[in-house]
Amino acid sequence: MSLALTPGIRFIVTSLCNYNCAYCHNEWEQKTKPISQLEIKLIDELIGSVKNLGGIEVDITGGEPLLKAERVEAILKLAKRYEMYTNLTTNGYFLIRDSEMLYQSGLDEVHVHIPSLDQYLYRSLMRGNADLDLVLEGIDRIKGKIPVIKINIPVEVETNEKEIPTLLEYFSNQGIIPRFIETMPTSSYQTNEQRIFDEFIKSRVGDNAHLRKSYLWGINEYESEGRRFETLRCICFDRKCNICPKTNFIHIDQNYKIRPCNLRPFKIQAKKGNCSKQIRKAIEFLEQQIDIPDDYKRLWGNNYVPLRIGDNLKNTEEVLKI
Questions:
Q1: What is the radius of gyration, based on Cα positions, of the chain?
Q2: Where in the chain are the domains?
Q3: What is the dotted CATH code of the domain comprising 8-319?
C-alpha cells in the first residue's frame, strides 16, 4: 500500500496547564520529568518517519506546551533539521519569557487562545491564573519575530459571540488573523454543519465576507473589508473520517504513544528503530475508519444531513438555529 501523510505530526508535550479553560477537552496523561537524550532520538526518528511519508508540518500543543519549554525547544530544532514547517498552540501566558527561544528555534507560526478582550470574561472563561494583559504583551513581544500569528477564539454562544466584530477589528489592525472556532456541544447547544457555523460567524462580521481559500480538513479563510479571519470546527463533527488520513495530523502524546484518532482507544507505543513502521500502521488504521464511534454520535447528535459543496443554503435566519 502506498501511504502519504499530510500535513504531518502533532506532539502533545504535556497535559499540565496553568489555566483551566471552560471549553477545554484535555485528555492526556501527566508527565513531569525532564527530556532525555533517548526521548530526543525518538522525537528525531518520529519526525523523520513522517517527513519520509510526505508530511510537511510539525505542530506542538498541550495542555500548555510552554510549561515544558525544554521539550518544545528540542522538537522545534529537530523539525527545522528536517525543514518542516512548525506551529505552536499556546494560551500565551509564557510568551514574554520564551519569545526569544521560540524565535531562535525557528518557530514559523503560533496560535494564541484569546476568547475575549474583556478582562472579566477572559478570566471567567480561561480561569486558572489567566492574565489577558500579560498575554497581549507577549503577542507584542513576538510580533515581527514569529512570521505567522493567529488568535484562536472559541465561540461560546450567548457568551462571547457579540465580541466577534471587535476581535476581528482589534487583531486585524495588527496584521494578526483571528480564527473563530466552534466549541464542543453541550446539553443546550448542538453543533450543526461547518457551513452553518460559517454563516453564523459571517452574520456577525458583515454580509460582504467572501471565502479566500480552504485547507486541511476544511479550515476556511475569509476576507471582509480587507480584514481576514478563519473559521474552524472539529473535523469529527462533520464525520470526515474519509479525508482524515490526508488532512489531519498523527498525534504523539507525552508518553510517546502514537494516537491516530483521538476518538478511539487505538494507540501504539513508539519505539526507536521502528517508528516508520508504526506510523504506517497508524495511517492504515485511519484509512479503515468510515464513521465516528456511536458514543460520539449520541453525544454530538446525529439528526442532520451534512450539506455538500454547491448546495444552496436556506435563509440565514432559518439556518442558524443556535
A1: 19
A2: 8-319
A3: 3.20.20.70
